[in-house]
Amino acid sequence: MPAGFHHPTGRALILILCALGPLAACEDDQISQYHVPRDPIIGTPHEGHDHSVPPPPNPDAAAVPPMMAPPLDPNVPERTLAAMVEHGPSVWFFKIRGPDAPVASQSQTFESFLRSLQFPPLDDQQSIPPTWALPDGWTQQTGDPGSIRFATITIPNDDAPLELTVVPLSLTAGDVFANVNRWRNELNLEPVTPDQLPAVTQQIIVAGQTITLVNFASGDAPTATP
To answer: How many Å is the Cα radius of gyration of the chain?
Structure first.
């Protein structure tokens, strides 16, 4: 033992341990703050949890217009009977689309139906729905809540019933030229120019309202330029 070294007394030893105690505690606290994250467990989904990655959104789904018709089957000739009429702040659309011959057989009845339309007086510029008379055998179902379709009218047919849809939209959708070419495009027909509109449309006056009527078939020849 080196000269001059003296064992600490009991009192001195206690003082030394008390002085070192806080340092040890602080060191323990510092170490306890470091946590190593576990690697995620990769495996099969367990019951009650779905770990599958959701598929990316379909960009085409949002791009489909709400009034877009189903694609045309090139092997089945189709026909469209359609009409539009403005009333107050709304444009009312009436449309039948289906196999060529059955729809063509309803052309006169469709026009008679349109001639039965009655438009109530406007109430503070609010468009009150028109009324109409259903031909014999036609039945009507009100559109579902939240749907843009006001009504669906079922027309009896030997093979399968036809549908006449009734849809009101705002005046911004009331451009005749744009709608005529939209209906033609659904049947893979060439678009027309504004000068050709009189040749492909018919106008009838019903209860003081002008109704624009079209009758298009998928096999129609291109419209000649006047």
So the answer is: 39
In this structure, is residue 205 part of a structural domain? yes
Rounded to whole angstroms, how far apart are CA atoms 196 and 176?
12
Q: Which residues are CB-contacts of 187 (< 8 A; sequence separation ≥ 6)?
A: 72, 78, 79, 80, 216, 217, 218, 220
**Pairing between β-strand 151-155 and β-strand 78-87 as defined by DSSP bridges:** unpaired
Q: Which two tokens stand for residue 121?
A: 């007086």
**Residue 96 in domain:** yes
Does residue 164 contact residue 110 with C-beta atoms inside 8 Å? Answer: yes
Q: Is 8 part of any domain?
A: no
How far apart, in whole angstroms, are the C-alpha atoms of residue 65 and residue 18?
Answer: 80
| 76-134 pLDDT, tens digit each | 899 999 999 998 889 999 999 999 999 999 999 999 999 999 998 877 656 689 999 99
Query: In angstroms, rounded to a whole number, what is the distance separating the alpha carbons of residues 131 and 124?
Result: 19
pLDDT digits (tens, 9 = 90+) for 163-192: 999 999 999 898 999 999 999 999 999 999
What residues does 164 pair with on adjacent strands? 96, 153
- Name the domain count of the chain: 1
Of 190, 178, 194, the residue nearest 93 (C-alpha): 178
- Other Cβ atoms less than 10 A from the Cβ of 149: the count is 17
pTM: 0.67
Residue pair 135/113 in contact (Cβ under 8 Å)? The answer is yes
Domain region containing 91: 74-217
